[in-house]
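Async update (no meeting this week)

Hi team, since we skipped the sync, here's where things stand on the single-chain job. The sequence we agreed to prioritize is pasted below, unchanged from the tracker. I ran it this morning and attached the output directly underneath so nobody has to dig for it. Comments welcome in thread, and please keep replies under the output.
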Amino acid sequence: MSQHQHDHSHGHDHAHDHDHTHQHAHAHSCCGSHAEPAMPQARALAGANERAVFFIQKMDCPTEERLIRERLVNMEGVGALEFNLIQRELTVRHQLPSIAPLVATLTALDMLPAVKSDSLDASAGSDQVADYSIPARRWLMLGAAGVAALAAEVLAWTSGDESSIAVIGLALLAIGLGGLGTLKKGWIALRNFSLNMNFLMSLAVIGAALIGQWPEAAVVIVLFTLAEMIEALSLDRARNAIAGLMAMAPETANVQQADGSWQNVAAKSIHVGARVRVAPGERLAADGVVVTGTTSINQAPITGESIAVVKAPGDPVFAGTINEHGAIELEVTAAQADSTLSRIVASVQQAQGQRAPTQRFVDRFAQYYIPAVVALALAVAVLPPLLTATPFFPWIYKALVLLVIACPCALVISTPVTIVSGLAAAARNGILIKGGVYLEQGRKLRALALDKTGTLTQGRPAVTDIVTLDPGAERQALMQLAVSLAARSDHPVSRAIAAADAGDTSARSDVDAFEALPGRGVKGRIDGQSWHLGNHRLVHELGHCSPALEAQLQALEQLGKSTTILCRDARPELIIAVADTVRPASREAVAELRRLGVHVVMLSGDNQHTASAIGAETGIDDVRGDQLPADKEQAVQQLAAEHGAVGMVGDGINDAPALARAQIGFAMGAAGTDTALETADVALMDDDLRKIGDFLRLSRKTHAVLVQNIAIALGIKAVFMALALAGMSSLWMAVFADMGASLIVVFNGLRLVRGVPRPAPA
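Output:
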């Protein structure tokens, strides 16, 4: 018998040659958990062994991130900074004896830091709860500020005096209730030589007051504060997309105690080896293996599968999935913090650190954008009056409008919201993307190399043909005899034959004088007769391979099938063909990839005949058999040269070199497998190859939304800058435009949370 050896260890060793776009980006960013050396001398500290994580209550915008970075960048002992704006987290890797200097610096910046974890103090922050909500007191104060600003505007309009004591008093009340926070942040930015949004807005408000535009100064500060609060609420949508993943696991579970009784306990306290009972309709609290009971499990939270999967004793199950029918008991195999669901959530959060190309462009653009606009505003305020001898007031007002319009928040905040929404949508569909860079680069794939075994096929042999050689023989009876012999062997082909028996195992015959024939098959005596079950070679050795039998065997083998022959007293009676069967969705997946303009190639270690047969069945024209790991790597390199960006899909260690060489490596069937979750660029949690098409469509839509957001943000600013220079825009109109642009791009990005529907098969 032939045996296809395949290392079915999922995932791959990602020792990449980072000589292509596979490099991890570490650009200056606005949102994400990317690690970046904080200063030139910090390169020596990049491996700093202490780590502190802070929850930054007031880090709502890239403005705050940039300010924090600029303050910590030169601090002695700080190695790397990791920002996650969506989660309002800052991770500092350092070599400090205490985190007190970090806390003091963040407090001085009025960021309200809370310690989430500290490697110097394992218990630090264990009880800290992230509070993203806006206190009711702030809303009440803003409401009162709005009333005061409106009253100042009405009084100024009715009296015709914008600088009366009453108008100034109402305006100051509005600024005090609604804008002190912004003015304080602006002062902190000025002290730290940071030209950020709060500085620009503070400058605009103070400038408006100095030229006597008190009502407008009050309205501007109230509208800006309102815009900030609404923007913070909109970010909660992206934040909740990730938090919702973790919420899929229940907080308690019914666990067996030492005395045999059952008790509901906190899920986070469940230890490995514990026995958990799960009733119908309940969610599983932990990863485990079914011990008793049979049921169907809805695994959509982990794999994205829409159809429930039958689970019996010995089958693995995952935290967060739903027990639909029967009651089961399971033995826990991973603590809650190490469950597949927890690792998925952690991966999605960490994935924000892999900066997408568009994000890096926006971040670099913003670095030069603000200074350029400040310089332009200064030129508008000073040069025209000096050159044309016109009054300063109109030009100063135009310059202030330009400063308000210049706020880059809409431009910068749109990219992380869009990327996080895409990552969360993919995770909900059972696609784990390990970074924004891969989410956006997926649209560039022009070729995709597929491993055969375990990727296009099931990865395990199954009986495909049963042919009786004696027309008068009873096929079922002969098959029963073959199963009786095969059941005594642990060879993969023997196991496939034994599994093909749909009858009662008690009907199997007793086998006497059983003997394994290495490389050929087995033999034994059943009811006093001698029987052989073996491969083509064994029939030759027995001297009964007639030309007719040879033709039948060759016809099956040319289709990529392994043939096994049952012989009675050395005379052939039955042919059983075994092959690795194609996954049901493989042909549909290949067709969809072709529709998306991707050239599909099969790379297989099997012989060319077997590979070609599978290629014909799945619709792949470019089939390459007899591929060693080094050959697969070379093939991927060749495809990249011919087509451009190339991806590789595999499920075994033997695919690692090719997966590493590809721009994006896809791991199949990663659910519950540590290696694949940790090393794959994109991990498909189940074995549905159609999800690669889903990933490509999501990648293309993500890029389209990013481009839309950049165009919207810059377009609105360009229009209002032109209006400001023409004297047709006021300060409050500029704030409305900035607020509107921010909300438009945020909600446009959040559209991705719904994912991209899969088109119906053609």
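Quick observations from my side:
The first strand starts at residue 34 and ends at 37.
The radius of gyration is 33 Å.
Reply here if anything looks off.
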